[in-house]
Amino acid sequence: MVLRRDAQQNVTKLTAAAVTVFRQQGFQAPLEAVAQEAGVSIGTLYNRIGRDGTRETLIEAAAPVIAAERTDQLAAEARSRPDPWARFEHYVTALLDSQAASPPVDDIMARRLPESSQLTEQCEHALRHAGRFIAEAQADGSLRPDFRVEDLTVLFQASSGILRASAPPCADAWRRHLRFVLDGLRTPA
Length: 189
Prior knowledge:
By secondary structure, the protein is an all-alpha fold. Helix content is 74%, strand content 0%. The protein has one domain (5-185): Tetracycline Repressor, domain 2, CATH 1.10.357. Helix 1 (5-25) packs across helix 4, helix 5 (84-101) runs parallel beside helix 8 and helix 8 (150-165) packs antiparallel against helix 9. The longest helix is centred in the middle third of the chain and has 26 residues, at 54-79. It is elongated, with a radius of gyration of 19 Å.
């Protein structure tokens, strides 16, 4: 079905608004906030996006924009580090820092919405970068040989739980946990 020009403009506004609102509040943000950000009524949101799967439709549209660019940027920053361990450590730390700073990134990394193919793909995208850093660090002997990329998913889920349970003055509890994990993964020089 071809939409009228004004209807297509509303879909475009709603998608952009979803990116903005989900970046700020996470994927569980009220749909009313998305409609308000887009400058349309909630009825227009439901009419243009559809009542069935509305949130999922908006998540599917917004997730790639929110996550992919950031993940690629973090991987590029990690590649600039001088050795394989530094690259691995930087990338994992940067991912968890992004997870702590952004509710939607936390949702993606903790795989909170497994029914979303876009969110699953974004997590897999991040893990593909990680897999390369893991292989390099294991090849030079700085990372335990039994560590696998799947172990990072567990780390992301644990950090998500720590983030949700921590409040000031322990807001950086995830950093302490990460330090313990990284110290346990590094092999002796």
